[in-house]
Every structure is written in structure tokens, then in C-alpha cells.
Amino acid sequence: MRAIRHHLSLLLNSRINTNTQISLSLPSVRNIMSGSDYSPAFNSPRLVLKKVLAKSQHEGDGAVVRRAIGRSELRNLDPFLMLDHFSVSPPGGFPDHPHRGFETVTYMLEGAMTHRDFAGHEGTIRTGDVQWMTAGRGIIHSEMPGEATNKGLQLWINLSSNNKMIEPNYQELPSENIPSAEQDGVEVRVIAGEAMGVHSPVYTRTPTMFLDFSLDPGAQLHQSIPESWNSFVYVIEGEGVFGSPSSSPTVAYHVLVLSQGDGLSVWNNSSKGLRFVLIGGQPLNEPVVQHGPFVMNTKHEIEKAIEDYHYSKNGFEMGKYWKSQ
């Protein structure tokens, strides 16, 4: 959620960033235990490679976000470009701004957000709801708070070069339609992908898993992850032990980049509940050039996106006279 004003001077004066994708092509990592009482649940367990605190920063109009991915310590994690844990109250919000070249996934943790775009699409997502928006060749929209307190996660997922200029699309999933499962003190909501025998109906152009886990005190989890995918954890509340039972606990607002492997194990050894999202995706292995809300493969394509947006063409035609309010 990155509100961009409709002024070409701001766009042209901003820096165009060529991002280097984080590679996880590392040797196989195995659990090293001091005792013989632990047998890994996977042939190649995923361990924690990097731990980053998502520090608060101001964004949009009066919003505060904890940026887990998309900051200097963790610029991106192919195919993921950004993860924000946002909090916003009226009259703040994310007024009219464009996107091109990727998808945004908004998952409401509390409150409501109302979305309006230049094609006439409008809707409100509330606690537990998901909006999966494919910006494709271009969208201009606003995202404004609907209640006194509004919190959620927004994930940016890159699109491959052959999908960057497709027509925009929405998949909206109300909370009651998100598949869930519960067993042995572990509950999961499957926003994308599969867990505990249940599948999400969401279509992911870039193959992705997005799982919201809650673990009771004393519970443990063993979740398979495709071996070729990059993956990470973001802790929403509580504290947990990730990867190996000998690891130090990780508390809320940290993102954990995981090593390659075939699955992740998690333990809640605390006296309180643990909630986190486990997100993984198939790397695109393509160049990433990002300029604010535009993500393409080359600097020339970014310059073209800025021009198209300014002159309301090639996907931005309906934005010429449109304002959300």
C-alpha cells in the first residue's frame, strides 16, 4: 500500500531501483541437535537464514506500516517484493495511486478497508477477508479505512515478464469462504496453496502459498513446502521456535527468511498463543526494476510505465478524469 500522488514531477524525480533478487541457492541445511531425542520431520528441514525486525514507518496519509520485506535489510525475496503489516484510522488511508507489473494481496486482521478503482470496481473487505488483485498492465485505485481501527497485511507478488501486461483482475474471498482446518492445537486458514489436507480456491499466476497459522501453547506444526520455492515467516503475535527445537524463540513483528528444504517445523513452547503467516513462492529468476508502484524487468519498461500513467494510455486510459472521491 504505497500512496503515490498524481504528479509527474514526483514520479520523475524518484529514483528507479534495480533490485538484486535474494538467492537461496545454498547447500542443504540439516538440523544439528545435541541429543538423540529429536528426529526431523523432513529430509531437508528448512531453518532460519535471516531474521529481520519489521520496524514501524509512516506510509500513505496517516498510516503506519511495519515493512517486513521491501526495506534495506530485506529488499525482496523472489517472487515477493513487499510485505506490510499496516495500521490506519480515518481520515488517513491510501488515496488514489497506480500499480503495474505485479499482484497485491490484502488480508484484513481487524476492521475494514474500502477499495475503489478507475474501472468502477468497488468493495469493502473486513476482518478475515482477502482481496487478491492482479494489477497487470495498470490500475489506479484507492484503499481507505472503514472503521476506527483497521489492521492487515499487504503482500506484493511479482509477475513474470509474460504476465506483466495482462488485464487487471480481482479475486475476493470473504472470511467464511477461506478454507480452514484444525488439529492437535494447530489451526490454519489457507489463503493460497494447501495445508492440513485443505486447498485454497485462489488462482496464483505466480505459484504461491499463503498460510495463516495459530498454535496453542505446547502445540507443534510440520508443514511441507515445495523444495524449489523461496519462503518466509512473519510473526503476528506471540513467540515461537522455528526450524529447529534448539533455535531461539522469535517474537512478534519479525520476518524469518527460511533456507531451502522440503518443510518447516514450528513449536510453541510459550504459555500464550502463537500466530504467524507462512508464505512461499516459486522464484521467477528474472531481473527486477522497481520505481515505486511500477515493477518491470528493464529501466526502459519503467520509463514507459511512467509515460503511460502520465498520459493516460496503454492501460491507464480510464484514469484521465477519474478520482475516487
UniProtKB/TrEMBL annotation:
Residues 211-314 form the Pirin C-terminal domain. The keyword Nucleus applies. Binds 1 Fe cation per subunit. Keywords: Iron, Metal-binding, Nucleus. Fe cation binds at residues 97, 99, 141, 143. CDD domains: cupin_pirin_C (cd02247), cupin_pirin_N (cd02909). Residues 65-157 form the Pirin N-terminal domain. It is found in: Nucleus. Belongs to the pirin family. This is Pirin-like protein. It comes from Crotalaria pallida (Smooth rattlebox).
